[in-house]
Amino acid sequence: NAGVTQTPKFRILKIGQSMTLQCTQDMNHNYMYWYRQDPGMGLKLIYYSVGAGITDKGEVPNGYNVSRSTTEDFPLRLELAAPSQTSVYFCASRPRTGVSRGVRWIQYFGAGTRLSVL
Amino acid sequence: DQQVKQNSPSLSVQEGRISILNCDYTNSMFDYFLWYKKYPAEGPTFLISISSIKDKNEDGRFTVFLNKSAKHLSLHIVPSQPGDSAVYFCAASANTGNQFYFGTGTSLTVIP
To answer: At A90, phi and psi to the nearest 5?
Structure first.
């Protein structure tokens, strides 16, 4: 069971370039999330999706776009890369309901994509 | 504005002793709290959680305490083991579970 898979693991972009960070999950989870983690900071929510065709903004959506055409995939698009977008990006998914009694809303994370914009 | 705060960036503990990691939050709408553990070059993994209707939850060596009046929670690890060395993130969510707010993390080092 692969869980949440993110590609690429590393990428260097020049200012103004665009790219798509890929995220795929094989757990049939309804909810999917994109976070960024800057050095010494916590994870900040960029966008999330509660199901195919439905997306919504998180805390820091500016400069990013997402789509959710299937349950499995939730790509994150950077259109005009800026140095401020240098970060580690994590994708996560969670099932609609809890995994066991009294435990709910557990997110499963990918290994991350380290992006540098120079 | 940081709604979930972990004011200790790092903590060192001797093997076998207790580790106590702290977390504070500001939003009174938060009603579910989670702790995640993160190793280098990996994504966070779920450790333990607690609902606001409880003040304590235990899972083996890990116990989370919630003080709603103080808007404070803590994670106790006892006994601490070298394999517990990692960064620990506190996270919180309100009743929909759509958005999660993470703290800045505490790096725990357990010294053999």
So the answer is: -120, 135
